Here is the input.
Amino acid sequence: MAPYGQLELRHFKFDGFNEQGAGAVGLSVKEASHTILTPTLGAKVGSTMDTGFGRIRPEAAVSYTFNVNEDSFRDVAFEGAPGQGFRLQGVDPKGFAKFQLGLNADIGSHAGAFVRGSYATGGGYDNASIRAGIVIGF
Here is the structure.
């Protein structure tokens, strides 16, 4: 078993815009810029099994991601009342747990295949995914 940590720093920049064709009720949306820090703590386990035609490596991981600095809002105003702005609150996700299982296969010395699945849940967030692919080395 191997514990791990990860820090993800993202920066978003959204352009401002004015709605067209709605007259006085059209929205004027200001530009926005935001930086988000997303730390993750988790643990991984894995093994390697040799077969007659290659190696198979099963793996599993569990982690928790903390969402901080998530002030997701936009300042807007109606075109007919530009001095009376208001703030629209967007999605403000909370932390979530993620469970992962995977299987990697080395086929020869320059090729492999993998299949991985994950399920994440928490803070009103549920997501399941499966990924598969091949790897060809040069």
The chain has a mean pLDDT of 87. The two ends are 31 Å apart (CA to CA). The CA atoms of residues 93 and 123 lie 6 Å apart. The first strand starts at residue 2 and ends at 14.
